[in-house]
TrEMBL record:
<dbReference type="Pfam" id="PF02653">
    <property type="entry name" value="BPD_transp_2"/>
</dbReference>
<dbReference type="InterPro" id="IPR052157">
    <property type="entry name" value="BCAA_transport_permease"/>
</dbReference>
<dbReference type="GO" id="GO:0005886">
    <property type="term" value="C:plasma membrane"/>
</dbReference>
<keyword id="KW-0029">Amino-acid transport</keyword>
<feature type="transmembrane region" description="Helical">
    <location>
        <begin position="101"/>
        <end position="121"/>
    </location>
</feature>
<keyword id="KW-0472">Membrane</keyword>
<feature type="transmembrane region" description="Helical">
    <location>
        <begin position="6"/>
        <end position="27"/>
    </location>
</feature>
<dbReference type="InterPro" id="IPR001851">
    <property type="entry name" value="ABC_transp_permease"/>
</dbReference>
<keyword id="KW-1133">Transmembrane helix</keyword>
<feature type="transmembrane region" description="Helical">
    <location>
        <begin position="34"/>
        <end position="53"/>
    </location>
</feature>
<feature type="transmembrane region" description="Helical">
    <location>
        <begin position="229"/>
        <end position="256"/>
    </location>
</feature>
<keyword id="KW-1003">Cell membrane</keyword>
<feature type="transmembrane region" description="Helical">
    <location>
        <begin position="148"/>
        <end position="165"/>
    </location>
</feature>
<feature type="transmembrane region" description="Helical">
    <location>
        <begin position="65"/>
        <end position="89"/>
    </location>
</feature>
<feature type="transmembrane region" description="Helical">
    <location>
        <begin position="194"/>
        <end position="217"/>
    </location>
</feature>
<keyword id="KW-0812">Transmembrane</keyword>
<dbReference type="GO" id="GO:0006865">
    <property type="term" value="P:amino acid transport"/>
</dbReference>
Amino acid sequence: MSTIVLMTVTGLGLAALYFLVASGLSLVFGLADVLNFAHGLFLSVGAYATWWAAGNLPGAGSDGWGFVLAVAFGVLAGTVVAALVELVMIRPLYSRTIEQVLVTVGLSLAGVAALQAGFGADPRPFPRPSWTQQVVTIAEARVPLDRLLLIVAALVVLGLLLAFLRWTRYGLIIRAGVENREMVTALGIDVRKAFTLVFAIGGAAAALAGALSGVYFGSVSPTSGASLLIFAFIVVVIGGMGSVSGSAIAAVAVGLLQQFVNYYGTSGAGDICVVALLAVVLLWRPAGLAGKAATA
């Protein structure tokens, strides 16, 4: 029983990481119709900015409020980079899908190369708060606190995103744009500002995932964003493009499936099962779990 509890909490922690990356990715594609392969770069920027701030930014550190300040700096860095990418590189390429893919893939590769040039290719130890390395007993299972931190952070972000989309003006514009962008434009609403805002929100969530992935894995590397981005794309497709709640449900399914199969089966079997789940969902419901089914 204790093993099941530990695997469940660990799987939910992994699901929290996937959701933080996938939520912004889903909104960006759902509203702006941009398949952003550079989204993992925002995660890496957030991770390295947090790592740098913990050791160099006045008032920041690896514990207490100092760590909160370091994470806030990392989130701000990811937000700024995401907004600049949309303004400078993506905005001129709307409705040009092939060019978007080429630019975002190239930016992703260039970003990894830049991080390797600036910080080295080897993983660097991440300044984790001491309390995150402690454990708490849940149903006789000794659960690391860093898993619970990830779960709480993801729940907070999910609540904030749903509240923003439901009760704010720009949230309503984004929701309407996901449903019918042409109609929103015809009403005289400038959706370009919403595009930039969605990129910034996605960058902030991905940067937070980068900071928390450092806590989860204990290190940060230039390729950490790319590895998490693969599963984030799977989560987005399973959950349904443009659906935050769908991404949350899909992230839980993917995280738990991957964790349990990898533990009870052979190494790597969990990844294969995740791809198989993706195939089943696409055959059964091509629009995703929370997406609208296509009609004739």
